[in-house]
Amino acid sequence: MPRQVDHESRRRLIAEAVCRLADERGLEGVTLRDVAARAQVSMGAVQRCFRTKEEMLVFALGHIGERIGERVQARLVRSPAQSAGTTLGHAATEVSLLREEHRAEARVWLAFVAQAAVSEVLATTLKANYATLQEAFTRLISEADESADRAAPLDPQREARALLALADGLTTHVLVGHLTPQEAHDVLHAHLAGLWEQPARQQ
Predict the structure, then answer these.
(1) Out of 50-54, 121-125, 149-153, least confident range
(2) Per-residue pLDDT reduced to its tens digit, 158-177
(3) pTM for this one?
(4) Residue 52 to residue 30: CA distance in whole angstroms
(5) Left (φ > 0), alpha (ψ -120 to 50) or beta: where does 60 sit?
(6) What is the b/e burial string over 114-151, where b = at least 16 CB atoms within 10 angstroms of the residue's CB?
(7) What is the dihedral of CA 92, 119, 172, 169, to 10 degrees?
């Protein structure tokens, strides 16, 4: 058991090195040799953890997704009594990576998205991450909609897709400087507010 725990810890250490290098150089600048140097492990240690560069990148992408998911979960733990609508807002904010402390993570995430366009295995991992997020958004929208007094119910899955696409797009707009983080935050939360500002049912 200790050997297995150490192996997983080393894989995560290597994934962090991949992310730092990808932030500095893009994924094309990530080599096994440079990752080993940045993680301060031997080439042999990297190759024992990952048979190929592609396998290493897939794990690193999953590692980023896990970090984002953990932050969303931490928000829920801190405020367990909050409404589904409020929870949705917190989750969408975390996914959009708008805060300054997440700027490097956003750059790395988009580097992986770009690479996934030409890598089937990365695309498969990315689609699984998106599917998990969409499922969570769908559930929260459905729960919030049940308590809303509206003339017609929302389509939770359609709204979840739109919200996820919006959050992802805002990440890009902030990174290239088209929007400031505050402007992107305002766009996101105006969209969220609009979900619950539908006409009420007729009495």
Answers:
(1) 149-153
(2) 999 999 999 999 999 999 99
(3) 0.83
(4) 12
(5) alpha
(6) ebbeebeebeebbeebbeebbebbbebbbebbeebeee
(7) -50
